[in-house]
């Protein structure tokens, strides 16, 4: 495809961008609708996060198969089927009337969406000559960053003006146009001798990761190991992952080549991106629940105040790419990004129910700068010591850890929010009793008298909101600690031998 005409390259670029933006947009557009979906689907704040985690678990499971599928069916065929499946499952998500339904269709949506970004990137790289591939990846990178910017705002607008179901229906026009354009582009990537698929390893990975996610997501509401279900899921997760590791190290064609983790930079970098995924996706869960549930923002307003995080990330990514091109040590850029991310998150731990909109916008923007400065340089560091022939397999491990870290992070953050909210409720509710002198003084100062109306006001309004804010602050503190844990990890990464490594590796971002 390197010899494609400018007109053909434009068609390929638009087709790929539509497909990728549709998939990336879906990661963020749903967040601001979670509060509305929770009421409509009769779910609590812990259960509704399954709408996000089911999608990401499906991504984690299917992502390692992308290269094998392309070898068998070709890039265009995979993209066409992925777009069709993604749109159909989006419609089914919009038609859901229970939590079980939407979780099932979101899982299906994640299966079809997993291949869109990596295959789309490969098509873009093949369509442009080698001297313009950096430009192609910059265009694609801008499209990817539209998700965090447009997602919350568009999702909020659709939820307020129509309903939460339209955050899924909006994929229909994107998908139809992407499908029509994708049919006109040349095919590629299909092999006459495709590698065999290790279905045993794939099954073990799916069982291990799925059980782990289920254990983390259901543990809090089922009282952890007092539940037989949680015990079974834990055993399945441990055995599934242990046998998956054994299988990956013993078969010549594993689904994920874990032998590459002997490379120090790849192993530490993958661990780092997993923790980073916790911070990124954990924040995306906390903010909309806080803004809409506690601050009483409308969905559109919540989307607007969350958009600066994406803007900050986009600006920082462009700056990081330029610094890498000038030979700046990627480790230094990552460390600066961690400082920005940690500082922006620390500011959120000072929140209360009376903060202004500016207190939401500026910490989000600062945190977004941190996200942008960490992402590309960390990818560069992770791949700097790998052989060129190992980079495709290494990219699968790296992105697997990023998505897995995000899905586990969502489950952990949701558990912390729910558990600490309950702790706060018990502690503050225990102070509301007729034997507490301070409680009587409070009633007198507030002009209230003991009675059913007062108990309702104090219990369901004041204590409820304060307890939920406590759970939210504890969840933000967990994200803050996540940034701090990254610092010692980054110090063990080797620096790339020269500036050219940074330029080369940036072009592979997102595979």
Automatic annotation (TrEMBL):
Its main location: membrane. Residues 12-500 form the Major facilitator superfamily (MFS) profile domain. One of its GO terms (cellular component) is plasma membrane. The keyword Transmembrane applies. This is MFS transporter. The chain crosses the membrane at residues 12-36, 48-70, 77-97, 136-154, 166-185, 225-246, 266-287, 299-321, 333-353, 365-386, 398-418, 475-493. It comes from the Bacteria. Keywords: Cell membrane, Membrane, Transmembrane, Transmembrane helix, Transport. The keyword tRNA-binding does not apply. It is a multi-pass membrane protein. Gene3D superfamilies: MFS general substrate transporter like domains (1.20.1250.20), Multidrug resistance protein D (1.20.1720.10). It is found in: Cell membrane. GO terms for molecular function: transmembrane transporter activity. Belongs to the major facilitator superfamily. EmrB family. It comes from Acidithiobacillus ferrooxidans.
